[in-house]
Amino acid sequence: MKIVIPGGSGQVGRMLSRHFHAQGHTVTVLSRSPRPAPWRVVPWDGVRPGGWIAHVEHSDVCINVAGRSVNCRYTARNRRIIYESRIRSTQLLSQVFASLNRVPRLWVNASTATIYRHALDRAMDEVKGELGGNEPGAPDTWNFSVDVAKGWEEAFFSTATPLTRKVAIRSAITLSPDRGGVFDALLGLVRHGLGGRQGSGSQFVSWIHEADFVRAIEWLIAREELSGVVNLASPNPLPNCDFMRVLRETWCIRFGLPTP
């Protein structure tokens, strides 16, 4: 297949690029900061059309994972960039798809499991899951994250693409050994004695392993009858305090200071 990955220079994009390149597929990454890689890397800014459109037009699958990392302080500026980098890039792709003579048969767009309400009572699934936003006592940062998720999916599904199947992946955090990823950040806390619970520690950590994530994408590509929203997560989330305890035990660290 010919696979184009907007935003493919981030952690999830690198995972996908490595996997599909190793499988013998032709991979093209669209990146704001192009760097040499074993696959083709084409510049784009996620805002304006450009020469990258030809690569989308001649691809079989488009997997959009563009978006500024959320591993930052939630200042007003960073919030704006987090929001706009996801919504504007998805809107741009929608406009481009409408103008193409030949469209990819599948468009997978990143979303996030953060769209669901913070739940300790039951699991959230694609059918009966409750979307979050403005729960009593929820911090402003939580509501912001839910607003980003809802805006992201609205930008994705608002334009009809009759010749292209669409799948929005509400993914949990993806754990891989890549530097700069969430596992690297959490393990760094453990190694420095700061790997205790975050907050109350009762909140569930939904996660998915790198290998399962890429296999799930392969499965979605093959299942042509599937479209719409799909959750990607391991079936056994852990409370944060237990999740961090497992990391400490695995790294042979006896204690970890909690983080407010």
Describe the structure.
By secondary structure, the protein is α/β, with parallel strands linked by helices. The chain has one domain (2-174, 209-235): 3-Layer(aba) Sandwich (Rossmann fold). Helices cover 36% and strands 18% of the residues. It has 7 helices and 11 strands. The strands form 3 sheets. A 7-stranded parallel beta sheet has the order 3-2-1-4-5-6-10, with helices on both faces. Strand 4, helix 3 and strand 5 form a beta-alpha-beta unit. Helix 3 runs parallel beside helix 4 (140-157). It starts with a strand and ends in a 10-residue tail after the last helix. The mean pLDDT is 95.
Give the secondary structure arrangement, pairings included.
Blueprint: E1 2-6, H1 11-22, E2 26-31, E3 40-43, H2 53-57, E4 61-64, H3 76-99, E5 106-110, H4 140-157, E6 165-171, E7 173-175, H5 182-191, E8 204-205, E9 207-209, H6 210-222, E10 228-232, E11 238-239, H7 240-250
Parallel strand pairs: 1-2, 1-4, 2-3, 4-5, 5-6, 6-10, 7-9
Antiparallel strand pairs: 8-11
Helix pairs in contact: 3-4
